[in-house]
Write a structure and sequence with these properties.
alpha/beta; 30% helix; globular; binds 5'-O-[(S)-ethoxy(hydroxy)phosphoryl]adenosine
Length: 702
């Protein structure tokens, strides 16, 4: 490994083998929504921003817009200015005339002996209206208010989202697997006075108590000065409360009971300006405070509708199944808003695709006739490990498959293609972010060949590039890596970070802004925070985050939030979070903590740290190891060297440590950590050049 010491991003190229193209089958091309290569012409740069009229025209507008893109307050872009519309109307009402009896959602409960539930567009319309009436009249919410949801994967979640959208109320769904504390922080940040939750849901065969998290969330919010007036509790089995946690008199209400007063109620969709916020979606960043990404109504809905049409290739007769949780942006854009706007039929699945056995996902696909399948590399790896030969036992046929959320290894890609897709399905590897609303990088499925491990070129209307640290373009095919940027705005881009407009400019635009006073979009390249390389064919290979974010199973966890969680334990003096390579999850978290004088570094203390992270953030953040160390490797100015710690955890070379204030500590920690790992059967694994570079630059931003 010594010869790989000091590997630069540029040298990665030398180690990166170009993969062969895979071409879409004629059967796919023949039916695709985008099969005419002239579409590229329609979205060429000279036609920007007017090219996006094509996406806006997929919607029904109450009032047509007059200005495609207003850049006068750059980089706070405004799309389709002057237009008015309602997202709930576009996702529900407009399909009634021709498709009222079509399935909008087919919900599959996790227990296999429970029947699936089909929600037609007509029934979705009824349920959205009734719930909107309840929100308006029982909760008294009005346009512009925020409501926090902490809902699992049941039809009540999209119903609640669309009910808010109908009223112009801004929803903020917190991923159901997140802790009550994380939910509480998001209630505070968004200033919500209503929390919508569910008593329980199934995961891995257990009916989990979910209501308990609502009580924690409300307590956290109250401690920080935000009062939650009402907690609306849906019941997993209406009429039967399935949580041991008591209801709080005067605050908590069973939705199924209150709804009885609103049976058959209708609420006119509120006609909203295109730039009215539709929802907030929180994500992690470099500092501890989560970022509430604010998405617009007109721009966002246009963008997800257009990309769902051309990149997901959803057509009226298809059965589409995206396994993402609606609590993440993928679910908002490509389970709820995009597919519903197109009038699609989608499968909604409550549980874990390998429960009760590794054939579950394929049984669902077979039984429901799924032909478009959408998931993340971590799930693909899990399905492959649990049952590499399972797919061939089931008679389903996919025309189209998606991978999203993390880089996919070419071997895993090939298993997805050959075994899951039976060699018949095209794959799109879609690169994008919570902030971006919809896809940024992907092949256009019928028109551009696939290349395992590369997401493909920028999508229609997106002009991506790779820049070096000085903002000079790293040419495609140069074999050098850098920071991927998007040179232009697009309708799906988030509007701001809720309550933190300066941070919005600083994090995403400051790095490459050419002139802060400019109102020309060309001066404001968008910086997503990912490293990438662009091959000669224009395809990007995403190398991962360049900031202090750890991507665990496709979920972004900020080192600062992990460390703050560890520091809630009284014993802990200092904590550092680093990524470690993980076969299934891509990356896992390891925590290093040093204790205050007088506290015992034993298993109990480590257990407290682990528990604190689960309580503060949620089980997805559970560290693989908590290492209690006498001290952290630090620079002379006292900064923790996460790069050095990450190298220890990954058995890679720690690099130059001569400038540290306490170099002797490195060897001590290394011996202890690596010996324990080996004793637990975690042998050092060979890292790829890309992985090595990630470890070596980790925490360098500090
Ligand atoms: C990473 C998920 C490689 C990337 C939609 C990005 C990917 C972060 C891909 C956003 C992909 C997402 N290939 N890396 N196809 N898709 N990423 O906000 O680092 O949860 O910045 O949005 O995931 O994660 P987020």
């Amino acid at each position: 490994m010594a010869d790989e010491q000091g590997l630069t991003e540029a040298q990665i190229a030398v180690h990166w083998r170009e993969e062969e193209y895979y071409h879409p089958p004629a059967s796919f091309i023949g039916q695709a929504n985008a099969a005419d290569p002239r579409i590229h012409n329609q979205f060429r740069e000279e036609l920007f921003p007017e090219c996006f009229k094509a996406y806006a025209d997929l919607l029904d507008w109450d009032k047509y817009w007059h200005t495609t893109l207003d850049t006068s307050n750059a980089p706070f872009w405004k799309w389709f200015v002057g237009g008015r519309l309602n997202a709930s109307y576009n996702c529900v009402d407009r399909h009634l005339e021709k498709n009222r009896n079509k399935a909008a959602f087919i919900w599959v409960p996790e227990p296999e002996d429970e029947e699936t539930v089909t929600l037609t567009y007509q029934e979705l319309y009824e349920r959205v209206n009734e719930f909107a009436a309840l929100l308006r009249d029982f909760c008294g919410v009005k346009t512009g208010d925020r409501i926090t949801f902490h809902l699992p994967m049941t039809p009540e979640l999209p119903v609640a989202m669309l009910a808010c959208a109908r009223l112009g109320v801004i929803h903020s769904e917190v991923f159901g697997g997140f802790s009550g504390n994380a939910c509480g922080d998001r209630i505070v940040d968004s200033g919500s006075n209503i929390l919508i939750t569910m008593d329980s849901y199934y995961r891995n065969g257990d009916l989990l108590d979910h209501k308990v998290k609502a009580d924690e969330a409300v307590a956290v919010a109250e401690a920080e000065g935000v009062n939650v007036d009402k907690v609306l509790v849906w019941r997993r089995y209406p009429g039967k409360y399935s949580s041991p946690t008591p209801m709080v008199e005067g605050r908590d209400y069973f939705v199924d009971e209150v709804l009885k007063d609103y049976r058959g109620a209708k609420v006119d969709p509120v006609s909203l300006p295109a730039e009215a916020p539709l929802f907030l979606m929180y994500t992690s960043g470099t500092t501890g405070r989560p970022k509430g990404c604010q998405h617009s109504t007109g721009g966002y809905l246009s963008y997800v509708t257009g990309t769902a049409k051309y990149y997901q290739d959803i057509q009226p007769e298809d059965t589409y199944w995206c396994l993402a949780d609606i609590g993440w942006i993928t679910g908002h854009s490509y389970i709820v808003y995009g597919p519903l706007s197109l009038g699609a039929s989608s499968v909604l699945f409550e549980g874990v695709p390998t429960y009760p056995d590794p054939g579950r996902a394929w049984r669902i696909a077979e039984r429901l006739g799924v032909n478009i399948f959408h998931t993340a590399p971590t799930t693909i790896r899990m399905l492959r490990k649990a049952g590499p030969d399972e797919p061939q036992k089931y008679n389903y046929h996919f025309k189209h498959m998606t991978t999203v959320g993390e880089p996919i290894e070419p071997e895993v890609w090939r298993w997805y293609h050959e075994v899951v897709g039976k060699g018949e399905a095209i794959i799109v590897d879609t690169w994008w972010q919570t902030e971006t609303g919809g896809f940024l990088g992907s092949t256009l499925p019928a028109l551009q060949p696939m290349k395992p491990g590369s997401c493909g070129p920028s999508v229609l209307g997106i002009y991506g590039a790779v820049y070096d640290e000085n903002g000079d373009e790293v040419p495609a095919g140069s074999g050098k890596a850098g920071n991927i940027v998007i040179r232009n705005p697009w309708p799906g881009i988030f509007q701001t970070i809720w309550g933190q407009p300066e941070r919005f400019v600083e994090v995403y635009y400051e790095k490459y802004c050419k002139d802060k006073n400019s109102t020309d979009w060309r001066d404001w390249p968008y910086f997503p925070g990912d490293g990438a390389m662009q091959a000669a064919d224009g395809y990007f290979r995403i190398l991962g985050r360049v900031d202090d974010v750890i991507n665990v199973a496709g979920h972004r966890l900020g080192t600062k939030e992990l460390e703050s969680a560890a520091l809630t334990v009284e014993d802990v003096a200092e904590a550092a979070a680093v990524p470690v390579m993980d076969e299934i999850r891509g990356r896992a978290v390891e925590i290093y903590a040093s204790l205050k004088p007088g506290f015992e570094a034993d298993d109990k203390a480590a257990g407290k740290v682990r528990q604190a992270i689960r309580t503060e953030i949620g089980p997805i953040a559970t560290p693989k190891h908590v290492w209690l160390v006498p001290d952290m490797p630090k620079t002379r100015s006292g900064k923790i060297m996460r790069r050095v710690i990450a190298s220890i955890s990954n058995f890679t070379d720690v690099g130059d440590i001569t400038t540290l204030a306490n170099p002797e500590i490195v060897e001590e920690i290394q011996k202890h950590v690596q010996a324990s790992k080996v004793a637990q059967g975690e042998a050092p694994q060979e890292l790829s050049a890309v992985e090595l570079a990630e470890i070596q630059r980790f925490g360098q931003e500090e």
